[in-house]
Specification:
5-stranded parallel β-sheet; alpha/beta; about 15% strand; Helicase, Ruva Protein, domain 3; Rossmann fold; 3-stranded antiparallel β-sheet
């Protein structure tokens, strides 16, 4: 019989349906997926050998779960993916506030209805998407919000005494019976509110305004927390933490490739932008490298972390920066450039928490420095390490470029120049194209142009060439001469701010 044909308690019994707890339901479906070699947490990247096996073990153990990690580590994403381990549909007593199991009713309403109508009790089928409840913990969350309270309007309308438990308006937790209940940022929940969860987790009874209710709630709890919150905003009270059986530690992507996969998956880049803008692998690697160097930077608060959202929004801004340049210059297509990374600065400044030294530098200059460090870190993947030529008497392949700038030559490199101007500007510097041909001969013409620009920025990061910010671009010049342009750079940063 199709479930759409099962509309009464009697039909449900005849069909042989049996009650099971949500934890058993999750466990059964997980076992089925593991046996069939199916992906359990589709779309969650970088945790295959760490977090996800821990999640699977916790589900197999019928545990409530605490996901502990810094911001932007996919904690909420993992919790939401658990929905896919629920049965597609679940029967409930029609009209029940607590998702009552027809065979094991919990609420007074459901018990009275079944006592009155017996096998003719109407049932409804609840889709698994309706069996997920999520609450962000904030200081203003009350016991009434989570557990419930007496509803005077309900009492008046139904002409009930305040001694009648039907006057109770149940909160989010009881209404999540037979569902997944997620509390995000648990340490932000006031300790007295956390205490209200003790008995629900362990004994299954709740107290509302003097009503002692024995409600064996069937809930899969998932909590998320940021270690930073323990010192800055609040903490998880020890008895509550003790009742959460599995604490699972999350982490940031451990390689550029994993980080790149996440950014490509999550970034909202429309088809028009993808048609107009080509993003070479070098630029994609640089975008991801920014987050890696930020997590190691002395200017960035290590305890706060650097969210994966930095590279996601940076990727979106990169496409928009190149697209804008293309529109301004009335060109049909373009390739992303190193200079386009200046357009991702707003994605960096909004995603990092600075320590005191970083605040003194200012968020804009810190962002520029992070981009510079990313360029330096990727440089040796394409060209010889400039540092190595300082220690040995070997001919420096970059000497021709260094000498050109030493002769009082300079180059103003603007962000929004056309594709043709971009090419002409790069070929003004002697030796630039020769080095690219020597070390990256198999690259395409577009890639070689990009590598010429990258080489120029890289030499500046290794202090072989001077580089200063100018209006809408950079100026490259002799390193010694650039030291006298620091005031101009600081003025630019002040104007930008």
């Amino acid at each position: 019989m199709n479930i759409s044909d099962i509309k009464t308690l009697g039909q449900l019994k005849q069909n042989g349906w049996q009650s099971k707890s949500i934890k058993q339901e999750l466990r059964n479906n997980l076992i089925e997926r593991l046996k069939n070699k199916q992906t359990v947490f589709k779309g969650v990247v970088g945790f295959d050998d760490t977090v996800l096996p821990d999640m699977e073990r916790a589900i197999l153990s019928n545990h409530n779960i605490l996901l502990l990690g810094l911001r932007g580590q996919a904690k909420t994403r993992i919790a939401r993916k658990m929905i896919n381990l629920l049965d597609e549909y679940m029967p409930v007593v029609a009209g029940s506030d607590l998702n009552d199991d027809p065979l094991q009713p919990l609420s007074t309403y459901a018990k009275n209805l079944i006592a009155e109508k017996g096998d003719q009790t109407p049932i409804e089928w609840l889709h698994r998407s309706k069996r997920y409840v999520e609450k962000l913990a904030t200081p203003d969350v009350s016991v009434a919000d989570l557990i419930g309270d007496v509803d005077p309007i309900k009492a008046a309308n139904m002409r009930l005494s305040y001694a009648d438990e039907r006057v109770i308006h149940f909160g989010l937790v009881p209404r999540a019976h037979r569902s997944i209940f997620v509390i995000n940022e648990l340490p932000d929940l006031q300790p007295r509110i956390q205490v209200a969860l003790f008995n629900i987790l362990q004994e299954g009874d709740i107290q509302i305004r003097g009503f002692n209710l024995r409600l064996p709630l069937d809930i899969q709890f998932v909590f998320t927390a940021n270690p930073e919150d323990y010192t800055n905003r609040g903490s998880i009270v020890t008895p509550l933490k003790d009742r959460i059986e599995s604490q699972i530690l999350t982490h940031y992507p451990r390689s550029i490739e994993i980080s790149k996969t996440i950014s490509q998956q999550e970034a909202r880049v429309n088809d028009t932008q993808k048609t107009i803008v080509e993003v070479p692998a070098l630029i994609e690697d640089l975008l991801e490298e920014i987050a890696f160097v930020a997590r190691e930077s002395e200017y960035v608060d290590e305890k706060s972390g650097v969210s994966a959202r930095l590279t996601i929004t940076a990727r979106e801004n990169l496409f928009s920066t190149a697209e804008r340049r293309c529109l301004i210059n009335e060109e049909k297509k373009t390739t992303a450039r190193v200079s386009d990374l200046s357009g991702v600065v707003p994605s960096i400044t909004g995603k990092i928490e600075l320590v005191y030294e970083g605040e003194q530098e200012g968020p804009f200059l810190v962002a520029i420095q992070l981009i510079g460090k990313a360029i330096r870190k990727q440089f040796t993947n394409y060209f010889p390490d400039p540092e190595s030529f300082k220690k040995r008497k070997q001919a420096n392949p970059y000497q021709k470029i260094i000498d050109w700038f030493a002769k009082d030559n300079s180059l103003d490199f603007y962000n929004d120049i056309t594709n043709e101007q971009y090419k002409k500007t790069l070929f003004l510097i002697p030796g630039l194209s020769e080095i690219v041909e020597t070390y990256q001969p198999k690259k395409s013409v577009k890639e070689k142009l990009l590598l010429m620009e990258f080489l120029l920025h890289g030499l500046a990061e290794y202090s072989l060439v001077g580089k200063n910010l100018i209006r809408a671009g950079y100026q490259f010049k002799d390193l010694f001469g650039s030291m006298f342009s620091i005031d101009e750079e600081e003025n630019f940063e002040d104007d930008y701010s």
